[in-house]
Amino acid sequence: MIQRIEQGSTFSEAIQTVEGWLPNFDSALLEAGERSGRLPQCFKLLAQYYSERCSLARQVIHDLMYPLFLFHFAIFIGPFPDLFLTWNIIAYLTKTLGVLAPIYLITFVIIFASQGRHGESWRAFIETLTHWIPFLGPARRALALSRLAAALEALINAGGSGTVGSRAYQLLNAVRARVGLAPVDVTQTSIEKERRLELAGEGLRWPDLVRWGKAGTTLAFKGFVPGKHEIFPIPQAELNNTKLVQNDAWK
Question: Which of 39, 158, 213, 217 could form a disulfide with 35 if both were Cys (CB 3.0 to 4.6 A apart)?
């Protein structure tokens, strides 16, 4: 990939030469970010999404630790009286590992099947199965929909078509259809509305308004001053004993 970039290819073109490295959605999002001049934001979006997925997986594993301990304890302690009486280790291992080995095998297959390097149809099948798992399924779906809603604007800004039947139209109205809302045309206004609703409470409203140039009017009642409040002041602790200079608007 580095060689392709050095030869003059764009970042998105270089990514496409490495098959199986990224899901198609991620590649499309990065291409849209590159075309719209928002590649850093798209990287941040993907990083946040995968970080939240890892946090979700860690939470699920943490919650399962104690039940798994009790399960293993029951498996190993059940045949123990027979082992103590007969000292037949083969029979003991058959009664314990004979139960655990198939479970470990099934778990390994599920983990392997859930990895992102498999095809889109296979991942869709796995997503369908996990959707019915309490907590895990709805949480994974919510993360995916949040990423989808956040990616729509990048696709539109990159020049994607918003006509009926286009990819952007399908993606936008997939977000709306899940809660029974009718389809709408893909415009900057509809994209802004979906981001405001889907990403409410996630701390993205302010940077969105700043990027769209609407913070001055929308946040005027909160004392927003255009030309100043688009950036934050550098904390005094960061200025002490350094050569950093405070932003002009905050001097």
Answer: 158
| CB distance 167 to 160 below 8 Å | yes
Q: Kindly state the tokens that stand for 220.
A: 């005027």
Rounded distance between C-alpha atoms, residue 47 and residue 45, angstroms: 5
The CA radius of gyration of the chain, in Å to the nearest whole number, is: 26
d(CA 145, CA 199): 10
240 contacts: CB under 8 Å, gap ≥ 6: none
User: Per the structure block, which two tokens stand in for 72?
Assistant: 């293993």
Give the tokens for residue 210.
């700043």
Q: Name the amino acid, one letter, at 188.
A: Q
What DSSP assignment string belongs to 11-52? Answer: HHHHHHTSTTSS-HHHHHHHHHHHHHT-HHHHHHHHHHHHHH
Cα three-residue angle 48-46-165, rounded to 5 degrees: 130
Q: From the first residue on, what is the mean pLDDT of each consecutive set of 10 residues in the chain (251 residues)?
A: 75 74 72 73 78 79 84 83 81 83 82 60 64 64 64 58 65 78 84 81 82 88 89 87 85 82
Q: Which of 248, 218, 212, 214 is nearest to 231 (CA)?
A: 248
pTM, 2 dp:
0.46
Q: Please spell the DSSP secondary structure of 114-177, one letter per residue.
A: TSTTS-HHHHHHHHHHHTTSTTHHHHHHHHHHHHHHHHHHHHHHTT---STTSHHHHHHHHHHH
Six token digits for residue 236 = 């005094």
pLDDT one-digit tens code per residue, 81-98: 887 778 888 888 888 888
